[in-house]
Amino acid sequence: MSESFPRLSARTRRFTLGVPRGFTISPDGGRVVFLRTRSGTDPVTCLWELDTETHVERLVVDPRTLHADEEDLPPEERARRERSREAAGGVVAYAADTALTRACFALSGGLHVVDLANGETNRLYSPGPVIDPRLSPDGRHVAYVCNGSLMVHDLTTGHSRALASPESETVTYGLAEFIAAEEMDRMRGYWWSPDGDALLVERADEAPVHVWHIADPANPDRTPTAQRYPAAGTPNARTELFVLGLDGSRVAVPYEEEYLVTAAWDSHALSIVTLTRDQRTMRLFSVDPATGASTLVREDTDPAWIDIVGGVPAHLDDGSLVWVANSEGGHRLFVGDRAVTPPTLQVRAVLDVDHDSVLFSASGDPTEIHLWTWDGHSLLPVSTRSGVFSGRMAGGVGVLSEQSLDDEGVSTTVVRRDGMAVPIPSFAERPGLDLRVSLGRSGSRELATAVVLPTWYEQGSGRLPVLMDPYGGPHAQRVLNRRGAFLESQWFAEQGFAVIVADGRGTPGRGTEWERAVLGDLATPALEDQIDALHGVAEQYPDDLDLTRVAIRGWSFGGFLAALAVLRRPDVFHAAVAGAPVTDWRLYDTCYTERYLGDPGQQPEVYEKSSLFADAAKLERPLMLIHGLADDNVVAAHTLRLSSALLAAGRQHSVLPLSGVTHMTPQEVVAENLMLLQVDFLKKSLG
Questions:
Q1: Rounded distance, CA 284 to CA 42, Å?
Q2: What phi and psi values does residue 261 have, to the nearest 5 degrees?
Q3: Which stretches does the entry tag as region Disordered (predicted)?
């Protein structure tokens, strides 16, 4: 008997194992180093190298040969993987020198350096568990974080020393604080100078942050984990910057803003980007590393909020600044002071700068993400087929990763200078599902919508119960032109549902006005748009949808939206499964929540409008709440407090607590059975 889809999806980490990722191109374009597991069910990530001239691929590091114990991870590394949503093990991250001759990585808390030419790997001494090792550009030193200290190891002498050590147990040097990692996509806390003689280092002090406790009720003998969580309206960690020289010098780099967004240090400038607490002002500074003095280069303001875009700041060879900013209703690429993209092309991220060319991703149609280059004179499309693309570029060589509805999995190709395409194979498992997905627009707002029908269903043969399957929150999308986005939705459809996935206001790819429609209210627009999409699809499929049997499911913001739907609109939604839902936005973190709802101390009415507690007495439909008790992102208190409110109102509901499970639910058996239990609940609830 073949393996069920839920089990295979869980075992393959949603079919991500075996997919090549984490590419680094050598300066001459002759080699590409990357990460990939050895099969679609192997969770151990290896380091590989491709020779772009000979097309020969070589395994450089297999963690199994290093006898590393993946269970022996330091807590800081587990936290980093949770923040980055890393589901695999082994060498999940690495850093190389500029010439791509050496790479370093942490494995089970140990510090390793590999010679990429011959694969010789050495474990180096460290005084404790190693976090985020990074080689200096010249390859002579490795910096890493250990027990909160920023350490440097001299590869010539073999000597390790601390450049900065924490003054208290709440202080770390060189690590991104919770908010930076979870909400700003900044996973690092230090940056090497181009010459390798100094580092810009973040000092984070969590002393002001309130302490929460994450307990494991299934194991009452275990002490609850104390976690500092910056909930909306409460203090964040204090962050500072210092330039630390290998000669022992220490120069403070002061800034006034609440958030350090990112930093970059290249041959043109040491740059830092900051953001005010209200997120309406972003500033780019150029820093003198010798004195710490900062010069304002650019200031962007917005009455709602400023978006954080990856890959900037950067510079062309002539020193021109590469930046992304909101202009004329769009996210636009700027080179110097000039916008070089039209406002109708929504720039998603800057992926690389190669001498005088910029590689970036952008959307015209929000369901597609394409690659473009700016070569100093004109915009050139890199990807031409329909789909979702990402890539890298260096030495005149590109790496192109492609996904679409037409093809399974991820296709990765190296494009050489002469235009020859060299594939990098994916070892991912085939899902074994035929997709029946139609992308289009629905409703009065022309929402990007996917309709997923059972492959066995004949249109017009009978009305199917409907399952809305959204995320629905700002800055995230579900409706994209790639098969991987709809595998779970298709499996639910095969169980007898017409599944609808819709992206409402707040989602990216449609311009700043569309994204900012959720300002001050995370509930009303999101719910209105799901209803709008439902009715719009029903008009397109008049003989196929049974609107007397409509369910909704979701996780995280989608869980919030699912619970919201049955509480506020039971006339439309007849059952809901809410996984890890945010039920009271006062319990969620500062950066995300305050971006949309402001300070709860100043605008309590805004938070009440988006809270679920006041609606508890309205519940009249079946509701299943699911939550991992070890979740340190959306803590289990969200579900438990809503359950208490429902109980106080005498409203029947179901709660499924998951012992030892975080926000990611990576455990195989848990992930598989969660899908089966949801289907069973929805079928029974809808009759």
A1: 43
A2: -75, -50
A3: 66-85
d(CA 272, CA 143): 20
Decide if 60 is inside a domain.
no
pLDDT at 667 over 90: no
To which residue do tokens 């590999």 refer? 114
Give mean pLDDT, residues 344-367: 97
Joined tokens for residue 92? 């999940």
Mean pLDDT of the chain: 95
Nearest to 515 by CA among 229, 306, 228, 205: 306
Q: What is the CATH number of the domain that holds 487?
A: 3.40.50.1820
Residue 1 has pLDDT above 50, yes or no: no
> How far is the C-alpha of 243 from the C-alpha of 289, rounded, in Å?
6
Residue range 393-444, pLDDT digits in tens: 999 999 999 999 999 999 999 999 999 999 999 999 999 899 999 999 999 9
Domain that holds residue 606: 437-686
Query: How high is the pLDDT of residue 687?
Result: 87
pLDDT at site 182: 93
Pick from 463, 350, 482: nearest CA to 407: 482
Amino acid at position 295, single letter: T
| Confidence grade of residue 664 (pLDDT, cut at 50, 70, 90) | confident
- Examine residue 242 and state whether it is found in any structural domain, yes or no: no
The residue to which tokens 């809901």 are assigned: 576
How far is it, in rounded angstroms, from Cα 642 to Cα 208? 28
Q: Is residue 543 part of a domain?
A: yes
| 635 is a domain residue | yes
CA 7/CA 9 separation, integer angstroms: 5
Residue 312 has pLDDT above 50, yes or no: yes
Residue 219, helix vs strand vs coil: coil
Beta bridge partners of 438: 451
Helix (H) or strand (E) holding 332: strand 330-335
Residue 204 pLDDT level (bands cut at 50, 70, 90): very high
**For the chain, how many structural domains are there in total?**
1
3-state secondary structure 549-572: EEEEEEECHHHHHHHHHHHHCCCC
pLDDT score of 71:
59
631 and 581 in contact (C-beta within 8 Å)?
A: no
Does pLDDT of 180 surpass 80? Answer: yes
Q: How many CB atoms lie within 10 A of CB 434?
A: 9
Strand-pair category, 545-555 with 575-579: parallel
| Amino acid type, 434 | D
